Amino acid sequence: MTNPTLNKKPGVGEDERLKKQGVAKKDRPKPLEQNPDYPGKPQLALQMRSQFGQWHPQVRVKSIVADALYGHNKFMDAASALFGGIQVISQLNCNQNVRASQS
């Protein structure tokens, strides 16, 4: 279901446009609060991972790979805890190595 409040917030570049016009931060529109009835992508991803673990307990998850959107500590810790402290990988650089045990 789509969040109806998303259509009411200013455009993506609105804040930048107002900054360039010299509008003080206190006079610019404030970001909308997240409506708990419409969870964001990180919350949906955690819900889906939790459901997967409940529906498929025979599958052993060894690690989770997430893109930069999910790279904040709150998400990383929650995702790791869902499957018993597994490794969560986000934003690898080309010069980093990842090792996986053969268990």
Strand content: 5-15%
What value does the Rg take, in angstroms?
Answer: 19 Å
What is the typical, i.e. mean, pLDDT? 81
Total E-strand runs: 2
Q: Report the span from N to C terminus.
A: 41 Å
Helix content: 25-40%
State the order of secondary-structure elements, H for helix, E for strand.
HHEHE
Largest sheet: 2 strands, parallel
Shape: elongated
Widest sheet: strand ordering: 1-2
Based on helices, strands and strand pairing, what is the structural class?
alpha+beta
Uncertain ranges:
none
Question: How many helix segments?
Answer: 3
Features:
103 residues, 31% helix, single chain, alpha+beta, two-stranded parallel sheet, 2 strands
Describe what this molecule looks like in 3D.
The protein has 103 residues and is an alpha+beta fold. It has a domain at 40-92. It is 31% helix and 8% strand. It is built from three helices and two strands. Strands 1-2 form a two-stranded parallel sheet. Strand 1 (63-66), helix 3 and strand 2 (87-90) form a beta-alpha-beta unit. Helix 2 runs parallel beside helix 3 (73-82). The radius of gyration is 19 Å and the shape is elongated. The mean pLDDT is 81.
Quickly describe the structure:
The protein has 103 residues and is an alpha+beta fold. The protein has a domain at 40-92.
